[in-house]
Design goal:
CATH class of one domain: Mainly Alpha
Shape: globular
Largest sheet: 4 strands, antiparallel
CATH architecture of one domain: Orthogonal Bundle
Number of helices: 8
Order of helices and strands: EEHEEHHHHHHH
Distance between the termini: 20 Å
Oligomer: single chain
Radius of gyration: 18 Å
Structural class: alpha+beta
CATH topology of one domain: Poly(a)-polymerase, middle domain
C-alpha cells in the first residue's frame, strides 16, 4: 500500500518519524506462491470470470500449510474504501504497520492490521489534506473500542470475508492490547510535543 505521503514534522518520537512514510517495509510471514497448482477457482469467479474473484493458495509459514485465499478481492475492497476516504484508509494502515515494525510486542500481522484499519468508519478516515494527524486519534479510538467490546472484535472479518480477523492462529487480544497502548502513548507524545500549536489532534495541521 504505497501512498507516497510524507508528513512527519509534528512527530519526533525516535524512529516513529517514519509514520505515514512510504519507506516502511512490507514484509510479512505470509507468502503467495506463484505456481499454477496454487491457484483455484471459487464459485463467484466461475460465475463472473472476473479476476478479482480468483483464488490462490497461501503458504502459512508458521503453520506450514497452504490456506485458500482471495487476495485480488481483498485488494479490490481496500482500494474501494481507500478511494472513498480520499486515501485515509491507506494512511491509517501505514500508521498501524509503522508501529508494528517499531514495537516488538505488537504481535499482529500486517495483513490483520490493514484489516483492522479497513473497519474504521469512513467518516473517521476521511480527513482534509494537512489534517492527517487526526487519523492517529481515529485509530486509537477504534482500537480501544475493539479492545473492550469482545462481540464487535470477534465479529470482524478480513476485507474479502474468508475468515475473521481475531481467530485462532491470527490476530490476538494480546496483540491488540499492545497496539492500543502504543497508539495511546504516541498520541500523548504528539500532543505534548506540540502543545503550543494545538490541544487535540483534530486541530493539528501539517505543512507539506
Amino acid at each position: 500500500m504505497n501512498t507516497g505521503i510524507h508528513f512527519t514534522s509534528a512527530i519526533t518520537r525516535n524512529s516513529r518519524a517514519r509514520l505515514f512514510n512510504r519507506s516502511t517495509p512490507e514484509t510479512d510471514n505470509i507468502v503467495f506462491p506463484r505456481s499454477n497448482r496454487n491457484s483455484y477457482s471459487v464459485n463467484k469467479y466461475a460465475e463472473t470470470n472476473e479476476k478479482i474473484y480468483r483464488g490462490v493458495q497461501i503458504l502459512d509459514a508458521k503453520r506450514k500449510e497452504r490456506l485458500p485465499n482471495t487476495p485480488f478481492l481483498y485488494n479490490a475492497w481496500i482500494e474501494h474504501k481507500d478511494n472513498a476516504t480520499n486515501g485515509g484508509l491507506c494512511k491509517a494502515a501505514r500508521l498501524l504497520k509503522s508501529l508494528k515494525y517499531d514495537t516488538e510486542p505488537i504481535d499482529l500481522s500486517s495483513y490483520d492490521l490493514v484489516s483492522i484499519a479497513f473497519h474504521i468508519p469512513e467518516e473517521q478516515l476521511s480527513v482534509p489534506r494537512g489534517m492527517e494527524l487526526a487519523l492517529l486519534h481515529s485509530c486509537r479510538v477504534f482500537c480501544e473500542e475493539l479492545d473492550w467490546d469482545a462481540a464487535k472484535r470477534n465479529s470482524l472479518q478480513v476485507p474479502d470475508g474468508h475468515r475473521r480477523i481475531f481467530e485462532e492462529g491470527h490476530a490476538t487480544k494480546r496483540g491488540l492490547d499492545a497496539l492500543v497502548a502504543e497508539l495511546a502513548d504516541l498520541e500523548n507524545d504528539v500532543l505534548r510535543e506540540n502543545q503550543r500549536s494545538f490541544y487535540k489532534l483534530a486541530e493539528a495541521r501539517v505543512e507539506y
